[in-house]
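Sequence only, no structure available. Ideas?
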Amino acid sequence: MKKQIIKLTPPQLLVSIFGGGIIIGALLLMMPFSTTEPIRWVDALFTSTSAMTVTGLAVVDTGTRFTVIGQTIIMLLIQIGGLGIMSFAVLIFMMLGKKIGFKERMLVQQALNQTSVGGVVLLVKRLFIFSFLIEFAALIFLAIRWVPEFGWSKGLFFSLFHSISAFNNAGFGLLSDNLVQYVGDPIINITISFLFIIGGLGFTVLADMWVKKSYKKLTLHSKIMIISTFAINVIAMLFIFS
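Reply:
I predicted one. Tokens follow.
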């Protein structure tokens, strides 16, 4: 009998890869080197899923129940989930000098919600350059505040973790009270808020703004995102102040 080969469509393959990443993340988070004390498998799975889908919900304290290794795993899951698994796959292919075929381009198209496969590789390159530059700049600003408080190693790690978490709108923090103790701190508040807004708008909107230079020439998607982001933030701020 011939073996039946299961062929998956790009969306199905993307979901399968995404699910596989969540399971691997959960298994790593259950390892002794990832936690300060053992956690249940369901908590590890929940944390991995929340990080990969940049949801921000947590059932255990990220700062106390996970070691630096565990926190790093969560940070990587956030980055991979936020920027896209296939985007990282394309990056690895480019670093290894391998050709990116039509199937891989279709997967990237699905992952980045593009209308065509044309130019997706260039889009991925720009996505990583833009994202890493924003996160690095935020890391510098956060380090100005946290390195004097925590020291170089912990301060830089805190800065990197919160920079990646905020930019990807993940909502994870390493402090038990999140960032409540920094209420009124201009560096922390402005930097984190900036990352939320920029990350929330998305790379495609920002790239559209960079290329078009004019609001009238922007795509409908970009216009809706800009207007809704501005309106929601201003209205919410006014309600909080009132």
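The mean pLDDT is 81.
Hope that gets you unstuck.
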